């Protein structure tokens, strides 16, 4: 889950929605067979007066972490990333929890790079030598993030992620892996959020962003919780936080979207093999 809008308490974002990210960690509805996401969690956020993000991660299940309940009512933020993890095979440890951070950038990902242990060496050897020492964990998600950074994430996020995904598919093909990539991913520089929905087999997990709050208010004039949200508020979610027809846009398969205050745009996503 990602939030962009007027500063708000993290507690209101993490715990109060009907189908919050905490509820999703226990009861995912669109998880593709995953019954819980209990292999750790993480949040990353920007302070209203600070361009560098902070992160808080734990290997505890999100629904049972007292430290998260302690800090969430004390974090006020205009942009928050939150992720609950179901490991695809790598260890349950703090360095493997999302979101991942580099400078002012945050990154998180649902999905997997198929047969990652077989391709990990080839992928990580392509990471820029100046970035390689910053790898902390051993997940496919962090590797994909550092490949995107290598291919220019800070200058042109859509092109960089297209190159990173194209490279992963190229390496996967060399290893005779049929469907190397499955991802919904999000990246932010603290001002804008880029999201990506793509899989090699064209069967990617769900991804949504919220529509204009003024429009949603007109649809649901009696829903008082909407009155507290600024007009530029946007949510990005794997599963809708509440069943409100007309409130959510489904990001199409093989697409990327740019979300910023008062603006959203959707474009086709196509991997490119880097030179």
TrEMBL record:
Residues 1-275 form the Glutamine amidotransferase type-2 domain. Keywords: Glutamine amidotransferase, Transferase. Transmembrane segments: none annotated. GO terms for molecular function: transferase activity. This is Class II glutamine amidotransferase.
């Amino acid at each position: 889950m990602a939030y962009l809008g007027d500063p708000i308490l993290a507690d209101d974002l993490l715990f109060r929605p009907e189908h919050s990210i905490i509820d999703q960690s226990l009861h995912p509805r669109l998880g593709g067979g995953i019954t819980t996401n209990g292999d750790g969690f993480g949040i990353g956020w920007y302070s209203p007066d600070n361009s560098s993000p902070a992160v808080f991660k734990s290997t505890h299940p999100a629904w049972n972490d007292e430290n998260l309940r302690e800090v969430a009512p004390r974090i006020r933020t205009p942009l928050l990333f939150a992720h609950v993890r179901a490991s695809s095979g790598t260890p349950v440890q703090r360095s493997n929890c999302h979101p991942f951070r580099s400078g002012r950038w945050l990154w998180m990902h649902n999905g997997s790079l198929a047969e990652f242990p077989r391709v990990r060496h080839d992928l990580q050897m392509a990471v820029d030598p100046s970035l390689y020492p910053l790898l902390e964990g051993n997940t496919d998600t962090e590797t994909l993030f550092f490949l995107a950074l290598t291919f220019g994430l800070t200058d042109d996020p859509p092109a960089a992620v297209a190159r990173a995904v194209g490279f992963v598919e190229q390496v996967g093909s060399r290893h005779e892996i049929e469907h190397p990539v499955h991802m919904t991913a999000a990246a932010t520089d603290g001002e804008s959020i880029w999201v990506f929905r793509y899989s090699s087999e064209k069967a990617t997990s769900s991804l949504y962003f919220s529509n204009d709050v003024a429009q949603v208010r007109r649809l649901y004039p009696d829903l008082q919780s909407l009155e507290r949200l600024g007009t530029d508020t946007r949510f990005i979610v794997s599963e809708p936080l509440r069943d409100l027809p007309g409130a959510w846009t489904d990001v199409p398969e093989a697409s990327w979207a740019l979300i910023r205050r008062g603006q959203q745009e959707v474009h086709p996503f196509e991997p490119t093999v880097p030179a």
